[in-house]
Structure formats: C-alpha cells, structure tokens
Amino acid sequence: MFRAIPVVERLAIRRISDHRADDEIRAHAHLLPGWQAIRIMVAPPGELACCGGSLAEGCGQGHSPPSLRHLPPRRTSMPDLIETIEDGVATLTLNRPESLNALSGEIRLGLLESIHRLGHDDSVGCIVLTGSGRGFCAGGDVKTMAGRSAKVFEERAEGIRQSNRIPMLMHATPKVIIGMINGVAVGAGLSMAAACDIRIAGRSARFGTGFIRIGLSGDWGGTWTITRLIGTAKARELFFTGDIIGAEEAAHIGLVNRVVEDSELLDTTMALARRIAALPKVALGYTKRNLAAAETGDFAASLELEAVHQARCSQTEDHREAVAAFKEKRKPVFKGR
Questions:
Q1: DSSP 8-class letter at 176
Q2: Its Gene Ontology molecular function terms (predicted)?
Q3: pLDDT digit string (tens) for 186-215?
Q4: I need a labelling partner for 29 at 20 to 30 A (CA). Which of 55, 79, 209, 328 fits?
C-alpha cells in the first residue's frame, strides 16, 4: 500500500536504456526514444515517500505503480512552465524569457502533461497559453539544434513525432485554448499559436515561420493549421520567405483574432477566457469537435456529427438549466455536466 503522507509532486525526465516507456507514459513524454516521464514524490523531512520509482517500474519495493490519471494533481510549477488556475481558467506560461521562451525539454514535457490533465479537469473551462517577458515563443532552441540533428535519422524523426503530439493534443482536448501572444511567435512558436483555438495579440507581437532561414521545413503542424487559417497563397509566402510580420498584418490576414494594446492584453484575454470558462463545458467540448471535423470533413459528415453531438448535449444538466433559466428570466448557473 502507498503511505498516506504529505508529499510534493514534481515532474522530471530521465534516460532509459533497456526498455521503452509504456503507452500512457510515452503519451506524456516528449523528447526522443529512450526518454520517459517520471514523477518524483518528495516527502517532508524525516518521512519516506513511496514510491520513488517510475510509473512504468514502480518503487522497487514490490508495490504496484499508480496510474497516471489517479495521481494527485501537480502542485508545483516546473521552472520552464508555470501553471496557475483562477476562475475556471488555467494559464500556462512558458518561462524562459532570456531565450524568448524557446522550447526546452521541460516545456515540451510540461505542455503534454498539463494539457492532457487540464482537458480532464472539470473545474477548468478554458486554457490560456502565453509566454513570460517579451516573447510568446521563439520556437526550437537553436543552441541545442546541432546536438539533436547529429542523431541518426530514425531517432531524430521519432523525436519530432513526440514533439508533434503537443499540437495534436491542443487540437483534440475538449477545452478551448486561447493564445495570448505577448511578443515574438516564430517557428514552432508560431505553429503553437496557430494550434490554439483563439489568438489575441499585443500590438508589439511579431510573427514568422522562420524555418527556412535555418534550413528547416517546419513542424508542430504549422503547414496544416496556418494554411487553414490564412489560405494557401499567404501561407506559402510566409513559409517560403520566412518574413516577419507585425500584429496588424497578422490580424488582417486572419492569423490572429484581434490586436489590442500591450497594456490591455492580459485583461482582454482573461476577460474572454472567463466568459468561455463560465459556459456549459460539455457543449463547448462538442462544439470544438464539430469545428475540428468541419475543417476536413464533408457537409454530410458534419451534419451527422452535429446530430449526434446536439442530441448528447440536449441530455445534459446544463441544457436543462439553461431552458429553465430562460423560462424563469434569470441567469443560468452551469455545472459542467
């Protein structure tokens, strides 16, 4: 049995050599083959927290490892990724301001873990993704690219596939994700912004694909999402030239939803996030599914999906509450079920 003692839970990554992480762990671990996510349970002084092993292996004392979804929520933020939750809004802040929040292993791993967990958290209705300092995200860390590129082709390709799970998870999670673009969004940083459901930019924000300038072709699904946001012609121009554009042009071509003064960015974004978080969560999730399917499916398929999802939503407590509130001429109180 696991002892019920106070512990502080943190995430870490470690190298494994003679086995692969199981599917549930690998779904939350970025990086390359041979890396897996582990949870470190740090006990108070004088106590021994079980377990100290990985989720795949257990603690080494004969105890069965707990399932990822049954572990208590992460209580401390990772150094490179800060998480806060307030008024039903979870904010994930990339925290490497000295490098304009270039992606690190901790950021990738943290985003996978956090977005998956928050997607199943009934207390959260909306997720805001932003960066600290004067950058949203400068994409991959160029300083570490030489080491990653030196790996054999198969290992490098698998590493990119693992990283690409983040935009896929952003696309699939039932929670609405708002990108609060507070500065530079380049390369994978632009692809990350494009994977958000809504993007609000500060006036000083700058956008660019950037890949071609360092001899790369792009990842994080940017060629897919950006093409659908702004159309084939403009997407090709941005990818082929690597040009940087300002916030006003980004809004003009449909890359962002709106532009506000830098001083108003936080208040504007959080006001919208709180509005969305207060809406019926089940209906929001199915609405996001409908919109995602509409990007690639045909009209008949969308009609069928709408029929199924509308019927499902009509059976929720929130729908019944909305109908009752309308009849009683009062504001509805939604419970997310």
A1: E
A2: catalytic activity
A3: 999 999 999 999 999 999 999 999 999 988
A4: 209
The residue ranges of the chain whose pLDDT is under 70 are: 1-78, 145-150
Quote the distance between the C-alpha of residue 258 and its chain's center: 20
- Hey, what are 291's tokens? 């919109």
Angstrom CA distances, 173 to 115, 263, 312, stand at: 7, 30, 18
Whole-model pTM above 0.90?
no
Alpha carbon distance 259, 200 (integer Å): 6
Tokens read off for 74: 């992460």
Distance between CA atoms of residues 325 and 328, nearest Å: 5
Q: Are 332 and 277 in contact (CB under 8 A)?
A: no
DSSP type of residue 97: G
Domains and CATH numbers, the chain: 8-70 (no CATH), 83-277 (3.90.226.10), 281-328 (1.10.12)
